[in-house]
Amino acid sequence: MVREISAGGVVVRQKDGDWWVAAIELPEASRAATDLPKRAARARAKTVLCLPKGLVDAGEKALDAALREVREETGITAALITKLADIKYVYVRSWGDGERVFKIVSFYLLRYESGRIDEISDEMRIEVARAKWVRLEEAPKLLAYRGEKQMAQQALEYLSAHAEVESGAR
Predict the structure, then answer these.
(1) pTM exceeds cut of 0.85
(2) Which run of H or of E encompasses 109?
(3) What is the pLDDT of residues 11-59, one digit of tens each?
């Protein structure tokens, strides 16, 4: 079994008294399943909302990878608040060799610093259809993957317990 190490960010900002989180929509091409029956293909055609994340490059620290992935996939820069957790799961590659992969993703709670959401390179559009802000309170229901739903919930709980974060958020 192959191992993959990734890192991602739960980037938050406060606006109009609410916490918002940066999320990405996967492009249609990565959601399309041409070998599925029509009913299943239609079911998969709905929007897939995720947190920005990606592989940690050789020699790169997980936090640096998370900050880089956030910048590449959303167009914004962020700063560390705290590490949330590592999520672990196994998946089967749907491309190439079809091998089973054991994946660990380190997620960090990050505070928005600058940039405009969805201002990303044309090359990145292969991975990201668009980036947008969603209410953090709604994120556990909107995100597609269980581990990411948990990260959004943990971010909500952390921010509720640490009012001091609010004063530094933009």
Answers:
(1) yes
(2) strand 100-115
(3) 999 999 999 999 999 997 554 433 334 444 444 457 899 999 999 999 9
> Rounded CA gap, 170 and 159, in Å?
14
Give the C-alpha separation, 62 to 130, whole Å.
Answer: 24
Query: How many whole angstroms separate alpha carbon 14 and alpha carbon 28?
Result: 30
Which domains does the chain carry?
2-168 (3.90.79.10)
Q: And the tokens for 24? A: 């990405």
Specify the length of the chain in residues: 170
User: Which residues sit opposite 15 in a β-bridge?
Assistant: 18
Report the distance separating Cα 104 and Cα 117, nearest Å: 26
Q: What is the DSSP letter of 155?
A: H
